Amino acid sequence: MRKIGILTGGADCPGLNSVIRAVVRKAMQEGFVVTGIKNGWNGLIDNDMKILDLRMTSGILDRGGTILGTSRLKPPLYPEKEAKVVENFRRSGIDAIIAVGGENTLQIGLDLYKKHSIPVVGVPKSIDNALCGTDYAFGFDTAVNVATECIDRLHTTAESHHRIIVIEVMGRYTGWIALEAGIAGGADIILVPEIPIDIEETCALVKARHRRGKNFSLIVVSEGAKIKGTVEPERGQTLIHTPHIGEIIGKCVEEETGYETRVSVLGHIQRGGTPSAYDRLIGTQFGVKAVDLVKESNFGQMVSLHDGQICSVSIAEAVRKHKAIDQALFEIAKLFSD
Ligand code: F6P
Questions:
Q1: Same domain, 172 and 101
Q2: Ligand 1: which residue has its CA nearest to atom 2?
Q3: Residue 325: inside a domain, yes or no?
Q4: What are phi and psi of 195, to 5 degrees?
Q5: pTM of the model
Q6: Cα separation of 319 and 108, whole Å?
Q7: For labelling, which of 17, 55, 79, 283 has a CA lying 20 to 30 Å from the CA of 276?
Q8: CA nearest ligand 1 atom 3, residue
Q9: Of residues 46, 62, 128, 326, which has the active-site annotation?
Q10: Parent domain of 48
Q11: Using CA positions, which residue lies closest to atom 8 of ligand 1?
Q12: Same domain, residue pair 277 and 155
């Protein structure tokens, strides 16, 4: 009987358990045994693995986070850790690894596949929806729904107090959450990492709204957005969370417009809790497809959604760069900016 290892790496995200459950179901149907590798790539360093069966993966579909645990460890950065991963993989009897994660987890999988011939299949997870090669990475829909609900709640308080509220959402390199939750929540101004922020223009939009009788405004900003003229972070660079861009924008807008301003940073709330129906559905389809890829020995590939079809793409293509926001959608958002 062949053995599949599954791990979840990087940031946690709603829908991970849907993938694990589907992998176990499909793998068992195909006659594979599934080993859960704990805490991302770390599990292969610590030899922390256990066989997953139907009992262990039942009742987890609607649970946020990951029953396997996760970590941000990148073994290829440390030669001795990388060697341990390879050694323990060989000893484990695992034939192929399904790596569920974002760009870093998938890049590590690709490196291990290329350098050490460890057979790896990827499943795209990203609340930021920042992965290339797929129209969708699971987790994003839940994050957008959570952020939209928060924007709705902040809307009523902004309106009652005649205030500006700046809402900072996640999105280090791409502004998908800000854009989609911003449109769905009726934000007045949306600021994203892809387009440097022009503070004067932002303040002018707020003032224009006031002139036409709208004495409150909601500004949604991605955590990774930058004010025009400031230096972009290197790809993969650790995000320094202080000062939050939301705080900076809030201060500038209050000083420039004179309107009372508050800032709300949504943070990890966007990543926790129950996955949306869509993320459970896509997670389930992705998990099944990942087992198909293993069965076909289609390694170095990532499951992907393309034009409504579940298919696959090379991991190399998926991690090549970040998937920038849809410009046409951004133009639609701008229609509501004054
Ligand atoms: O990559 C997903 C993400 O949630 C980003 O949106 C955010 O910048 C980052 O993870 C936060 O990471 P951590 O949980 O390590 O603070």
A1: no
A2: 11
A3: no
A4: -125, 110
A5: 0.95
A6: 10
A7: 55
A8: 11
A9: 128
A10: 3-139+273-318
A11: 172
A12: no
Cβ of 239 below 6 Å from ligand 1: yes
DSSP string, 243-261: S-HHHHHHHHHHHHH---E
Q: Are 109 and 315 in contact (CB under 8 A)?
A: yes
Cα(11) to centroid of ligand 1, in Å? 6
pLDDT along the chain (338 residues), means of 10: 94 98 98 98 97 96 98 89 96 98 97 97 98 98 98 98 98 97 98 97 96 96 93 58 86 97 98 97 98 98 98 98 97 92
User: Do 9 and 101 reside in the same domain of the chain?
Assistant: yes
134 and 7 in a common domain? yes
Total domain count, the chain: 2
Position 241 scores a pLDDT of 47
Q: Give, in degrees to the nearest 5, the angle at Cα 199 between 195 and 203.
A: 120
The DSSP result for 20-50, as a single string, is HHHHHHHHHHTT-EEEEESTTTHHHHHT-EE
One-letter identity of residue 176: W
The total number of residues shown for the chain amounts to: 338
> Which residue's CA lies nearest to atom 11 of ligand 1?
11
Cα 178 to middle of ligand 1, angstroms: 14
Distance 87 CA to ligand 1 centre (A): 30
Residue by residue, what is the 3-state secondary structure of 181-238?
HHHHCCCCEEECCCCCECHHHHHHHHHHHHHCCCCCEEEEEECCCCECCCCCCCCCCC
The runs of H, that is alpha helices, within 15-171 are 16-29, 42-46, 79-92, 103-116, 140-161
Q: How far is the CA of 325 from the centre of ligand 1 (A)?
A: 18
